[in-house]
Structure formats: C-alpha cells, structure tokens
Design a protein that fits this description.
The protein has 116 residues and is mostly helical. The chain has helices at 2-22, 28-44, 48-55, 57-60, 64-81, 83-111. It has one domain (2-111). The longest helix is centred in the C-terminal third of the chain and has 29 residues, at 83-111. The chain is globular and about 45 Å long. InterPro entries: Spore_V_AE, SpoVA.
Length: 116
C-alpha cells in the first residue's frame, strides 16, 4: 500500500506543477521556486515530515523536499549554534546534493554537446 500512496502523492505534486505551467503560465524557475517555498513552509509548521511518513518516496523525491531539507538543517544548527547556525545549517545539509548536481552537470557538458 505504501507504493500506492507514494505514487499518488508524487503524482499529485507533479500534476500541480503541470497546472502551474499550463494554466498559470509560470516559468520553470517560478514553479520550482514556489515548490521549494511550499516545502519550506510545510516543514516550518511540522507538516512535511508527516507527509513523508505517509507517502514515503512520493514526498521525498520532488523538489518540495529540498525546502524541507533547508528548514530542517537550519533548525538543527540553530539549536547548536544560535543565529549563525541558521545560515550554516542550510548549506551543510544541502551541500552534497548541490555539489552532485554541479559535478554531474559538468560531466554531462563534457560528454555531450550542450546547446546555448
């Protein structure tokens, strides 16, 4: 049953994104930013962790999970280091994913002919 809920919730998030593209004519940057902010706000209210418990990978794979990671990292480090921990915590928790995106993007540009 967990696969069903993961598929349903992940698909629903994707449908919302597609509606933002098609109906509201938002650019990909606006849509991604909106999802990150929504994930951060839900995490700030403690709701995103409940969604992860319910939907599993359906909630952890989409871009909303990045906003959740930012808030969780900031809150963990804020408890340890105060205000400076808010800033450093966001970078500490998400640095592996950002670094991987940069490295794989660079390798992809080396292997394939990028347009632009």
């Amino acid at each position: 049953m967990i696969f069903f809920w993961a598929f349903l919730i992940g698909g629903l998030i994707c449908v919302i994104g597609q509606i933002m593209f098609d109906v509201f004519k938002l650019s990909p940057g606006h849509t991604l930013s909106t999802f990150v902010v929504i994930g951060a706000v839900l995490s700030g209210f403690g709701l995103y962790d409940r969604l992860i418990d319910f939907a599993g990978a359906g909630a952890t794979v989409p871009i909303m999970s990045f906003g959740n990671s930012l808030v969780n990292g900031a809150m963990q480090e804020a408890e340890k280091h105060g205000l400076i921990g808010v800033v450093t915590g966001m970078f500490e928790v998400t640095s592996a994913g950002i670094s991987a995106a940069i490295i794989f993007g660079f390798l992809g540009a080396l292997l394939f002919k990028p347009k632009g």
